[in-house]
Task: structure prediction
Amino acid sequence: MKRIIVAIDGYSSCGKSTLAKALAKTLHYAYLDSGAMYRAVTLYFLDNQLDYNDPEVVEEVLQHIEIHFERIDGQNRTFLNGVDIERAIREMRVSEHVSPVSTISTVRRAMVRQQQAMGKRRGIVADGRDIGTVVFPDAELKIFLVADPEVRTSRRHLELAAKGIDADWHEVQRNLLERDHIDSTRADSPLRQADDAVIIDNTLLSEEQQLEKALALAKERIPAA
Ligand code: DC
Result:
């Protein structure tokens, strides 16, 4: 059966990764968490106390980082220079800096190149902010996921708690809204709905219900032969 590319974009914490993971699992496709790559680059700047506002430093950093994903015990884990950084990249200190880092065009070019290579053989579900518009403009299915900001905040707060990260609810909301603003107003590849994307509002949907909707859309687009 021919394999397609599914691109899922949307604001922070609207359930993109939950849907993308479930869809990838059901279709037996690879899952690409593009946000994890921007988070990994951000972590490198923070841990090495490097200034991401200095273009020469950015060029240098991009020469020294290798990001890849591994599946361990059924979980998708992000590696930076051979080290599992899955937990560290979800911390608030990374969330605080990731949007400014992802406005840098040289960073974006490097990440997009790697993401496009990962989708070369299709059979991939990718989530992010520019997947349907820039990374895979020819994706057979583009979904633009939306959800109420209060619901998004509570989901992210719960997700952090489940990972043992204790964050203040209002702090989480402030960070989400700030990232929404930076991500959608930046000059290079701002978050926007692709013209041919289908909107799914999951405010009142369960995980199963949103998967069902997305799966129906994917099946309509997977050629039979
Ligand atoms: O999906 P996430 O919250 O883990 O993404 C973290 C940040 O990375 C997000 O605020 C903006 C940036 N990002 C991006 O610029 N482009 C993408 N395709 C994915 C994420």
Q: What stands out?
A: Residues 5-220 form a domain with the Rossmann fold fold (CATH 3.40.50.300).
